[in-house]
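Researcher: Sequence recovery benchmark, item below. Answer with residues only.
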């Protein structure tokens, strides 16, 4: 189950990033993460801390609940 949640969340991040026409490197600059980390999140390979999830929500200018609207 955990991996499916990570994959769904990663797909959500990728969808939002592409909708805003951002590269992984551009999103990395906005969030302060390394672009390799962005790729790992998008592939569902990283289990994120809540504080990191909050940074993604902020980068996309949305609330946590909006970000989790998968």
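Model:
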């Amino acid at each position: 189950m955990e991996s499916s949640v990570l994959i769904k969340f990663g797909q959500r991040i990728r969808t939002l990033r592409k909708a805003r026409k951002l590269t992984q490197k551009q999103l990395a600059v906005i969030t302060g993460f390394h672009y390799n980390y962005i790729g790992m999140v998008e592939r569902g390979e990283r289990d994120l801390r809540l504080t990191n999830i909050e940074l993604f929500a902020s980068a996309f200018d949305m609330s946590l609940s909006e970000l989790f609207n998968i």
